[in-house]
Amino acid sequence: MTIRVSRTLNFEAPAGSVWEFISDPAKRAGAISVVDSWDVHDDVSATWQVALPIPVIDSTVAVETEEIEQNPPTHVKFVGKSRALRVTGEHDIEATDSGSQLHNEFVVDGRLPGVETFFSRNLDRELDNLEQALLDSFENS
């Protein structure tokens, strides 16, 4: 079973501020609650250490992420692969009269029992976390 979640977030911040956050692999990783730590290798790849609270996994799982599409300053798509899951995230930014919109889509394919169940229950909350991390970044800039 594949889990797919899409959501559009509206911000009173300019599209450039959204791009600055969403195009940064470290900032994206930091917004995800199950990512314990990460190492950014370059502008397009990083390793996330993901801690999933499911019985089959008793430690973190390394997820190798890589941006596979980037069209600055409006589009970025990444893929993360591990023995436990494959995740694809796609973000499109659009300027609006009052700021900007961020269109998000995440697709998770679980490779171990319990992974898809976890994400079907929690992926929407992870988008809440992403929204809050963006709002926090706007306040701190």
Describe the structure.
- This protein has a single domain (2-139), classed as START domain (Alpha-D-Glucose-1,6-Bisphosphate, Chain A, domain 4).
- The mean pLDDT is 94.
- It is 28% helix and 45% strand.
- The radius of gyration is 15 Å and the shape is globular.
- It has a seven-stranded antiparallel sheet.
- By secondary structure, the chain is α+β, with helices and mostly antiparallel strands.
- It has helices spanning 15-22, 25-30, 115-139; strands spanning 2-11, 35-40, 45-50, 61-71, 75-81, 85-96, 99-110.
Low-confidence stretches: none
Element-level helix/strand string: EHHEEEEEEH
Query: Helicity level, as a percent range?
Result: 25-40%
Largest sheet: 7 strands, antiparallel
Taken together, the total number of domains comes to 1
Q: What value does the Rg take, in angstroms?
A: 15 Å
What's the CATH H-level superfamily name?
START domain
Instruction: Give the helix/strand class.
Output: alpha+beta
Features:
7-stranded antiparallel β-sheet; Alpha-D-Glucose-1,6-Bisphosphate, Chain A, domain 4; alpha+beta; 141 residues; 3 helices
Concise synopsis of the structure shown:
This protein is of the alpha+beta class and about 140 residues long. The chain has helices at about 15-20, 25-30, 115-140; strands spanning about 1-10, 35-40, 45-50, 60-70, 75-80, 85-95, 100-110.
